[in-house]
C-alpha cells in the first residue's frame, strides 16, 4: 500500500526546564536509565540555576517553528508545523495528539540534531515509537528527514560567524569547532557502518574552515581593505591571504558526562585551550558546530566555562553563533521537506550539499546507531 502523502512537519527536540522547579524533574527525565552519576546531575543542575532555572531551548524551538511557518507561507508550501520534545513539555505524545485531532495522517520529522548518533537520532526514534504507543489508534504515521550537517544552509551561518570572529582576533588565532562529547562506543557504532558521528563533524568542520579561509572579505568594513576595490575578485581579500596563512582548526568536545570509567570523545574544549595557550596561540574562534541553537550547552559549557578558561590563559575568545533561525537554515528545512515530497512523487529531487561524505539517508537502515542498553522499538527505520 503506498504511504499517505506528507501532510505535516513535526519538529522533534530535546526540551529544557523553564523555571527552577522544573530543573530536577527535567534532569530525571533526561537521565532515566542512562547511568549518570549523582554528582554530575547536581553539577548540571547548577548550570541551569545559574541561568534562573530556565533553559533557552524551548523558546528557541518556538522561534524556529514560527520561522519555518513563515518561510513555508512565503513559499506557498501549505504544511502545518508541530513541535514536541523528548524530555519536557510539550512532549512528543502531546504533539501527536494535537496532530491526530487536526486530521494529520503522515508527518515528516525533523530532529534538532544535524548528526547521526544514538542520542541525536535513534533515541528520538525510540521516543517517537513510545509516544505513538501512548497515543494509540489514529496517531499519524511518521517518517524522518535526513540529517543536515552537509547542507549549505546549516554550514554557511557558521562560516559567516567564523569570518566575523577572526576579524576581531589576533594573527595566529585558531578555529576551535566544538560538539557534544558522547561515549567512544556510541561514536564507534553511529550510522549504518560506525564512526559516523565524528566523520560527519569532521566533514562539516572541514567544509566550514575551508570556506572561512577562502571567504572574500572585500565587502566587510575592515580598514585593511579600503584601498582595494570592493566587489572585485581580488584574491588578496580572502581571510587566509589577509592573515598570511590559512587559519588552522580542530574538532574538540564539551559536556562530557557518564561515569569516569567510561571513555568519551576527547579532547575536552578546556584541555584543548590549555594546549593551544601552551603553544603560544593568542586567540580562538569557538564554533559550536554540533549544535543547532544557543541552548544551555552553548551558554554554560562554552560561553561560561570555556570562556573562563580562555580568560585565565590570556587567550582572546570569540564564540560564533549557531544557525538558530538564520533564514538559510530555515530554508534548508523547507528544502529537506520539498525534496522528500518530490522524491515520493517519483520526481528527481535536486539536493544542494557540501562535504565529501557519502549520501545521507532518510529513514534509517537496520542496525543504525544501536542502543547500547538493548533494543527498544523505534520508528522511521528498518528496525
Ligand atoms: C549527542 C548529544 C546532543 C546533540 C544532539 C541533540 O541535540 O540531541 C545532546 C544535546 C543536548 N543535551 C542536552 C542536555 C543534557 N544532556 C545530558 C546528557 C547526555 N547528552 C548526550 C549526548 C547529546 N546531547 C549524552 C550521551 C548524555 C549522557 C546521558 C545519555 O546517554 O543520555 C544531560 C544530563 C546531564 C549530563 O550528564 O550532562 C543533559 C541535561 C540538551 C538541552 C540543553 C538545554 O537545556 O538547553 C541538548 C540540546
Ligand atoms: Fe546532552
From TrEMBL:
This is Coproporphyrin III ferrochelatase. HAMAP family: Ferrochelatase. It is found in: Cytoplasm. Its EC number is 4.99.1.9. Pfam families: Ferrochelatase. Keywords: Cytoplasm, Heme biosynthesis, Iron, Lyase, Metal-binding, Porphyrin biosynthesis. Fe-coproporphyrin III binds at residues 55, 124.
Amino acid at each position: 500500500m503506498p504511504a499517505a502523502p506528507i501532510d505535516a512537519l513535526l519538529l522533534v527536540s530535546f526540551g529544557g526546564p523553564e523555571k527552577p522547579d522544573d530543573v530536577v524533574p527535567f534532569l530525571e527525565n533526561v537521565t532515566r536509565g542512562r547511568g549518570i552519576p549523582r554528582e554530575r546531575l547536581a553539577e548540571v543542575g547548577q548550570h541551569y540555576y545559574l541561568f534562573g532555572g530556565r533553559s533557552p531551548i524551548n523558546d528557541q524551538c518556538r522561534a524556529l517553528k514560527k520561522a519555518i511557518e513563515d518561510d513555508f507561507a512565503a513559499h506557498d508550501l501549505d504544511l502545518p508545523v508541530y513541535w514536541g520534545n523528548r524530555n519536557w513539555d510539550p512532549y512528543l505524545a502531546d504533539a501527536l495528539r494535537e496532530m491526530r485531532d487536526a486530521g494529520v495522517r503522515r508527518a515528516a520529522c525533523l530532529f534538532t540534531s544535524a548528526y547521526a548518533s544514538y542520542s541525536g537520532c535513534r533515541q528520538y526514534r525510540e521516543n517517537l515509537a513510545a509516544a505513538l504507543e501512548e497515543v494509540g489508534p489514529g496517531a499519524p504515521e511518521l517518517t524522518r528527514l535526513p540529517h543536515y550537517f552537509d547542507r549549505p544552509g546549516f554550514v554557511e551561518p557558521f562560516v559567516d560567524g567564523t569570518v566575523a570572529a577572526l576579524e576581531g582576533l589576533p594573527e595566529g588565532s585558531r578555529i576551535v569547532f566544538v560538539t557534544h562529547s558522547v561515549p567512544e562506543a556510541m561514536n564507534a557504532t553511529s550510522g549504518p557502518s560506525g564512526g559516523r558521528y565524528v566523520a560527519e563533524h569532521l566533514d562539516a568542520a572541514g567544509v566550514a574552515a575551508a570556506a572561512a579561509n577562502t571567504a572574500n572579505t572585500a565587502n566587510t568594513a575592515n580598514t585593511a581593505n579600503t584601498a582595494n576595490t570592493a566587489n572585485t575578485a581580488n584574491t588578496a581579500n580572502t581571510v587566509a591571504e589577509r592573515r598570511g596563512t590559512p587559519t588552522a582548526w580542530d574538532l574538540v568536545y564539551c559536556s562530557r558526562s557518564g561515569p569516569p570509567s567510561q571513555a568519551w570523545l576527547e579532547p575536552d574544549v578546556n584541555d584543548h585551550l590549555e594546549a593551544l595557550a601552551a603553544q603560544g596561540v593568542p586567540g580562538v574562534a569557538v564554533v559550536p558546530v554540533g549544535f543547532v541553537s544557543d541552548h544551555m550547552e552553548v551558554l554554560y559549557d562554552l560561553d561560561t566555562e570555556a570562556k573562563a578558561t580562555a580568560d585565565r590563559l590570556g587567550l582572546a575568545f570569540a564564540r560564533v553563533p549557531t544557525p538558530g533561525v538564520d533564514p538559510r537554515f530555515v530554508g534548508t528545512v523547507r528544502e529537506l521537506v520539498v525534496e522528500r515530497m518530490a522524491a515520493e512523487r517519483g520526481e528527481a529531487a535536486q539536493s544542494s550539499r557540501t562535504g565529501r561524505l557519502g549520501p545521507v539517508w532518510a529513514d534509517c537502515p537496520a542496525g543504525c546507531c544501536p542502543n547500547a542498553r538493548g533494543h527498544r522499538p523505534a520508528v522511521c527505520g528498518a528496525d
